[in-house]
């Protein structure tokens, strides 16, 4: 894995209404319409996730979200019922936790760190 470089991700979801609730209520992201089939979920650090039931040529199922405190975010999200596929662990890129959204999309909370040997 690598430090987040992208500022936006195109993500296909199976049910847009459920996805909007998940991104708004669980991930606490701002939601606004983009077009008739797509909504944008924006995080506090200005990462935008374009959500749609339609396929997009730019879509990905690997979404990286930077955080200043991975353990705090992990605990808050877990307390809200989110099930993680990876507890926070130290990787070469930093502290990382992972979860999925039920539509085969994989999300990584990344607290970037620079380690000295």
Please indicate the count of domains: 1
Q: CATH homologous superfamily, by name?
A: 2,3-Dihydroxybiphenyl 1,2-Dioxygenase, domain 1
CATH architecture: Roll
Mean residue pLDDT: 89
Which stretches of 5+ consecutive residues score pLDDT under 50?
A: 1-5
Q: Total number of β-strand segments?
A: 8
User: What overall form do the CA principal axes indicate?
Assistant: globular
Separation of the first and last Cα atoms: 19 Å
CATH C-level class is Alpha Beta
Q: Roughly what fraction of the amino acids lie in strands?
A: 35-45%
Determine the CATH topology.
2,3-Dihydroxybiphenyl 1,2-Dioxygenase, domain 1
What is this structure's SSE topology?
Elements: E1 8-12, H1 16-26, E2 30-33, E3 38-42, E4 48-52, E5 62-66, H2 70-79, E6 84-91, E7 94-100, E8 106-112
Parallel strand pairs: 1-4, 5-8
Antiparallel strand pairs: 2-3, 3-4, 6-7, 7-8
Characterization of this structure:
The chain is α/β, with parallel strands linked by helices. It has one domain (8-112): 2,3-Dihydroxybiphenyl 1,2-Dioxygenase, domain 1, CATH 3.10.180. The protein is 18% helix and 39% strand. The protein is built from 2 helices and 8 strands; from the N terminus they run βαββββαβββ. It has helices at 16-26, 70-79; strands at residues 8-12, 30-33, 38-42, 48-52, 62-66, 84-91, 94-100, 106-112. The strands form 2 sheets. A 4-stranded mixed beta sheet has the order 1-4-3-2, with helices on one face. The chain has a 4-stranded mixed beta sheet with strand order 5-8-7-6. β2 (30-33) and β3 form a beta hairpin. The chain is globular.
């Amino acid at each position: 894995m690598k430090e987040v470089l992208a500022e936006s991700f195109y993500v296909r979801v199976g049910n847009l209404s459920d996805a909007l609730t998940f991104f708004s209520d669980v991930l606490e992201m701002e939601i606004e319409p983009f077009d008739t089939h797509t909504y944008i979920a924006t995080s506090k650090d200005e990462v935008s996730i374009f959500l749609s039931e339609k396929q997009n040529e730019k879509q990905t199922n690997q979404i990286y979200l930077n955080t200043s405190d991975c353990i705090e975010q992990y605990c808050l999200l877990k307390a809200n019922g989110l099930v993680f596929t990876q507890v926070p662990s130290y990787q070469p890129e930093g502290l990382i936790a992972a979860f999925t959204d039920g539509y085969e999309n994989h999300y990584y909370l990344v607290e970037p760190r620079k380690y000295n040997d």
